[in-house]
Amino acid sequence: MPGAIYAEGLVKTFGDVRALDGVDLDVPEGTVLGLLGPNGAGKTTAVRCLTTLLTPDSGKATVAGIDVLKHPNEVRRSIGLSGQFAAVDEYLTGRENLQMVGQLYQMKAKEAKERAGELLDRFNLADAADRPSKTYSGGMRRRLDLAAALVVSPPVMFMDEPTTGLDPRNRQGLWEVIQELVAGGTTLLLTTQYLEEADHLAHDICVVDHGRVIARGTSDQLKARTGGERVEVVVHDRGHIATASEVLRGFGKGEVAVAEHTRKMTVPVTGGAKLLAEVIRELDARGIEIDDIGLRRPTLDDVFISLTGHAAELPDAGADAEAEAGADAGPHADAGPHAGPGSGADTGSQRKKEADK
Amino acid sequence: MSTSTATDAAVKAGPRPAGGIRQSVRDSLVVAKRNLIRMVRIPEVVLFGLIQPVMFVILFTYVFGGSIQVGGSLSSQDYRNFLMAGIFAQTVTFATAGAGAGIADDMHKGLIDRFRSLPMARGAVLTGRTIADLAQTALTLVVLAGVALLLGWRTHENFGKILAGFGLLLLLGYAFSWIGALIGLSVRTPEAATSGGLIWLFPLTFISNAFVDSNKLPTFFRHIAEWNPFSTTVQACRELFGNLPPGFKTPDAWPMQHPVLASVLWSVLILLVFRTLAVRKYRSAAA
C-alpha cells in the first residue's frame, strides 16, 4: 500500500530546464521525509507539484490516497502547506489571518474563529493576536504561517524550507512544534538545505540534486555510505591546498574532497586519534599552517559531497547563497552521478526562478 | 505550546464538501473582506485615489476650461458640465492599476500560493479583490461628485437617470479591474503592475471624448474615439446627466447614437473576456 505521500516518475520541465527529472517518493503515514538538496535542486518544484500548485509534465502522485492530478481540490482539503515565505497578510492581524484561512477551508465563521483562538494560544501568539502581523518578528510570522497551514489539522503537511532565515532560537522553537505535530500522527514532507535539520527531524531522507533523487535512506544509512570517520583540515593559506591534499591522500582511504573557497579538505580515514596526530606532524613538517583540524564522524554534508562531488550550500550564507550557488559547483565538481541534463552549469536558483514564471 | 488534541480530532473530521455558486460567493466575500480591511488599514491608498481625480477636475476646469470649445459653446460652465462625465469615467478606469498592483503583491509575497493550496472556489481570490475595488471606486465617485457639485457641476435630469449613469460607471470600473487582475498575474513585481496598469490607460482615456468634443478630432482619431468603450460610457453619462453642451452634434457612429446600450455591451464583453483570461491565468500562476 502506497504511503501518505506517494510519487512516481515526476517530471517537470521549464523550457529546457528539467526541474524534476523522474522523482519517486514514498512517505509512510505518520513519518517525516526530509528532501535535502541545494537551491535549484528541485525541492520546491516537487512540493509545488504535490500540493497542486503545479501540474507535472508526467508521472503520478497521490496524497492521503487521493490522486493529485485527478482530484486536486480533494487533495487541498487534506493538506497544509507552509512555504518558503511567511504567506500571511501583513495588514491583517494574526487572528484575522487564521480566521480567513479557516473560512476558505470551508469552516463556518464561528468555527473558524474558535480554531483561530486555539492556534494562537498553541503557537504563543495570543498576546499579539490582535496586532497586524506586519508588527511581528520573523519568528512570529513563521509561526503564524505554520498555524495557518494547520487550521484544519490536515493529515499531510508540506513544509518548504520552514526555518530558512530564522535565528537559532526560533529555529529550535519551530523544530519543537514540528516534532509535536509528528508525534500527533501527521505525515510530513519537509524540504531543507540545512543538513542538521534533516538529521534532526526526518525519519527518512532523500537527497536531491538536479531534479533527481540521488540517494535515500535514514540518516544513519546515508552516513554509513560515506564510510566511517574522516579527517577535516582547514589550511590558512589558499596556496597550501595542493600540498595539503597530497598529504591527506597519503593517509586517507579514499578521495580527498576539497572546498576551495573555505580552504577545507576532507578525507575518509581509519586509525582514529593516532592517525590524526601523524597527519598534524606531517603537515607541520611541510610548513603548512592550519586553521582547524579534526577527526569527524560523517555529517550529511559529507554525504552530500560524496554523492554529488560538490558541497551543499553553506546555510548561514542566507540569501547571498542563492546567487553564489551557480559559481560554487564549478571548480571541484568531479562529474558526480548527475551527469544528466544541465550538469554544465549548476542549476542556480536564478535559473529556476525564471523557469518558474 | 500545548496540543489541543480534542479539538484537533474534531476538526480532522473535516470541512464539509461545499461547491457551486454558494461556495464561490462565500469565498469571494471572505477575500473581499480581507481586502476591505487592508483598505481601512492603509488609508493612504484610498486617499491618493481621491486626490488625483479632484486635481484633474481643477486643472481641466480652470486651466483648459475657457479655451476648449464643446459643441457650440466656449462657456466654462458648459465645459465643466461636459468634463465631469469624462473625469468620472477616467477615475473608475484608473482604479485598474490598484487591482493589478494588489494582486502582483499577493503573488510576490506567496499569498497566492497559499490561496491556491486551499480548497476554495477558483475565481474567488480575484473576485474578492475586484469586489473590494468596486467598493473603493464607489466611495471615490461619491466624494468626487460632492467636490464637483461644490465646483459648480450641475445635472439636468431626474435622479433615476443620474443613478443609472453612476451604475454604468461602476460597471465599466468593475470590468476594467479584471484587466488589472490579469496584468497583476502576468508581471513579476508590484511595481511593474502599477506602471503596466497605467500606461495604456493614457491613450485609452485621451483618444476619446472625455476631455474634448470628439467631432473636432482628426478623422483617424475621431473613429477610434467614437468606438472606444471608454467614450461610450462617457457619452452615455452625459446623456443621463443632461450634460451635453448646447449645439452639440451627436456623432453618427453607432455606439455614440446608442451610448447606454453600447456601454453595457462593451463593459459586459470586457468583463467576460478578461475574467475568463484572469481566472485561467490564476490557476496556472507561479510565484
From TrEMBL, chain A:
All copies of domain ABC transporter, residue ranges: 5-235
Main location: membrane
Protein family: Belongs to the ABC transporter superfamily. Drug exporter-1 (DrugE1) (TC 3.A.1.105) family.
A cellular component annotation (GO) from this entry: plasma membrane
Name the UniProt record assigns to this protein: ABC-type xenobiotic transporter
Domain of life: Bacteria
Root EC class: translocase
E.C. number(s) listed in UniProt: 7.6.2.2
Native source organism of the sequence: Streptomyces typhae
A molecular function GO annotation: ATP hydrolysis activity
